[in-house]
Amino acid sequence: MDYQRIFAQAIDRLHAEGRYRVFIDILRNKGTFPNARCFAGHNGPKPITVWCSNDYLAMGQHPKVVEAMEEALHDVGAGSGGTRNIGGNTHYHIELEAELADLHGKEAALLFTSGYISNEATLSTLGKLLPGCIIFSDELNHASMIAGIRSSGCEKRVFRHNDLAHLEELLAESPADAPKLIAFESVYSMDGDVAPIAEICGLADRYQAITYLDEVHAVGMYGARGGGISERDDVARRVTIIEGTLGKAFGVMGGYIAADRNIVDVVRSYAPGFIFTTSLSPVLVAGALASVKHLKQSAAEREAQQANAARLKRIFAEADLPVLPSTTHIVPLMVGDPVKAKRISDILLAEYGVYVQPINYPTVPRGTERLRFTPGPAHSEEMMRELAKALVEIWDRLEMRLAA
Which of 310, 300, 355 is nearest to 36 (CA)? Predict the structure, then answer.
């Protein structure tokens, strides 16, 4: 068996389809984000502007977060000492879980090492514990949710994206006495659209289902205290389980769920992805704790970010660039071709000092490849106009059609 040939062919297929991913060699500049340094393809660091970070509010650079992490490092050291069963609960973990439960109006919360793990571990565990459970999944759910549902071994029924009529049709067809779980997201990060949470909860009530809401692209970003779309729309109390991340708007690392005490205790006690994983470093937890506390009190960061997202959409539209409609902080620019998406990204970085990563299959369906911009509070209007000017020049160079 020629193993190396098989592996090489797998990589060659990605190159041929224009889907081979290149990770940028970068360092962010603390305190001046979105400014950063790129080390790829030239002699020494080159200054660049980052346009695609999921650190939406630049909280990873916030003085309170950095200071809290430094204090924790010098107080307790670097690592957690193992799983929480072995190393114990550091007090930072207990504090952060209490803050997150309060953020979402739930009885308890549970920390994981990432948002991916929190989705995979929770959905797989719940599905295995509910005999005969049927999981209803939005067709655009994140890969981590799909992995958790698959691992649960449950019957899965996929409903068309945000299609309430189709969801109800599937619910009505299912046995009335079967346990049911509806899994969906609040903000879908590739298109920037929002789920009808209240209406989905209404269907869950009618068909005796529980709900699982992924708020990873919304926590910190929406609601009076950053509790997400469910807080903004005053429906958090109706959602059974809310899942979120600490690695996007909160700017650090980790994932979590918030729910009633029984559900949290069941996941804590049964989920292999929690039980057998070294817990988050107290240093990271301390930083996340400072970030969550700050964003509960401060709306300035999310207001500035929302204003800049609206401004960039307007500037793109005025330049006839093919910006997709979005009511959220996500600004997708449609390309529709993986090779061209990568080419545009390469030109922006090499010639304009602009970093935005191309989004290709399997993250988005084939033929919908795009560039995904996430302007933050510190992106200036001058940066936006320079970006739009560069994109128009590249569109013309590659003989691509503008929106007009």
Answer: 355
Residues 216-264 pLDDT 10s: 999 999 999 999 999 999 999 999 999 999 999 999 999 999 999 999 9
Phi, psi of 38 (to 5 degrees): -110, 135
Strands 193-194 and 187-188: antiparallel
Interatomic CA distance for residues 48 and 33, integer angstroms: 10
Alpha-carbon gap, residue 252 to 102, rounded angstroms: 19
CB of 372 closer than 8 Å to CB of 334? no
Segment 7-64, tens digit of pLDDT = 999 999 998 888 888 888 999 999 899 999 998 766 678 999 999 999 999 999 999 9
Q: Residues 208, 172: contact at Cβ < 8 Å? A: no
Kindly list the catalytic residues. Answer: 248
Q: In what order do the strands lie in the sheet with 108-112?
A: 108-112, 255-259, 241-245, 210-214, 180-185, 134-138, 155-159
Determine the Cα angle at 271 with ends 72 and 246, to 5°: 35
What's the DSSP call for residue 358? E
CA distance 179 to 369: 37
Task: Please check whether residue 270 is in contact with residue 129, taking contact to mean a CB–CB distance below 8 angstroms.
Answer: yes
